[in-house]
TrEMBL record:
Coiled coil: none
Lineage: Eukaryota, Metazoa, Chordata, Craniata, Vertebrata
Protein name: Laminin G domain-containing protein
Limits of the Laminin G domain: 40-214
PANTHER family: PIKACHURIN-LIKE PROTEIN, SP2353, ISOFORM A
Length: 217
C-alpha cells in the first residue's frame, strides 16, 4: 500500500513454476543476507551502486566533509559531487591511498595520504576533507596532509548533489575511467558541512546498497 516501506528480510531458493529463478537481471537496494545482527550504518556490497544524499555542495565555497568508513577492499569511490568535468569534488580510496580532488572551475587540485596501516583492517576509520579558501586539507585518523590550489575568485554558485559509494554511470568521474572498482564496505556518521547525513533515509539508492545496517565483515 502507499506509504509502506519495502520488504526487509531475506529470500532463498526462489522458484517460478517449480523452476529456480536464478540471479536477478536487475536489483535496487538489495544486498546479501547475513546471519549476525547488523551494526548501524550503510553497506555497499561491491557489486556496484551508490546513494544520493539530501545534501549538496557549492564547490566554490569553503566546505567540510567527514565520514567514518570501514572498507573491505583497498580501492573504491567514497564520495562524489559534481556537475561537469571542471566542477567536481571526489574522495577516493585507490590501492590503500586516500585522495581528495577538487575543481571549482579554476583548475583541479588535490591532496593525498597513504595511511601507515591499511584501512581495510575491519576497523572504523575517520576521513575528513576540508577546503578553506585555496587550501585543501585531508585528515585520516590522526594523520593529515594539505595542498594549495588556485587562488579563489568569483565562481559559479551551482549546487552539486552528493553521492556516496559511487556515482551515476552517466557522470564523468574525474581521472577514474569506467571500471574503477565499486566501493565495498560500510559508512557511518557521515556529515556534510557539519550537517549529519541520515544514511537510513537517503534521497535515493541505486544498486546493491543496504541502508538497514552493516554486517560484521
Amino acid at each position: 500500500p502507499a506509504g509502506c516501506g519495502g520488504f526487509i528480510g531475506c529470500f532463498r531458493d526462489l522458484k517460478l513454476n517449480a523452476v529456480p529463478a536464478g540471479n536477478p537481471v536487475y536489483s535496487q537496494g538489495v544486498v546479501p543476507c547475513f546471519q549476525n545482527p547488523l551494526q548501524p550504518g550503510a553497506y555497499f556490497s561491491g557489486q556496484g551502486g551508490h546513494m544520493e544524499t539530501d545534501d549538496s555542495l557549492v564547490l566554490g565555497r569553503d566546505l567540510e566533509i567527514q565520514l567514518e568508513v570501514r572498507p573491505a577492499s583497498d580501492s573504491g569511490l567514497l564520495l562524489y559531487a559534481g556537475t561537469s568535468s571542471d566542477q567536481f569534488l571526489s574522495l577516493v580510496l585507490s590501492q590503500g591511498e586516500v585522495i581528495v580532488s577538487v575543481n571549482s572551475g579554476k583548475g583541479e587540485f588535490s591532496t593525498s595520504l597513504m595511511p601507515e596501516k591499511p584501512l581495510c583492517n575491519r576497523r572504523w576509520h575517520t576521513i575528513t576533507a576540508v577546503k578553506r579558501n585555496n587550501v585543501l586539507q585531508l585528515f585520516v585518523d590522526g594523520t593529515s596532509e594539505q595542498n594549495m590550489g588556485p587562488k579563489r575568485s568569483h565562481s559559479a554558485e551551482t549546487k552539486a548533489t552528493v553521492y556516496l559509494g559511487g556515482a551515476p554511470s552517466d557522470f564523468l568521474v574525474a581521472k577514474h575511467p569506467d571500471g574503477f572498482p565499486a566501493f565495498h564496505g560500510c559508512f557511518r556518521h557521515v556529515s556534510i558541512n557539519r550537517r549529519p547525513v541520515v544514511l537510513s533515509k537517503p534521497h535515493s539508492v541505486q544498486g546493491a546498497v543496504g541502508t538497514q545496517g552493516c554486517p560484521h565483515m
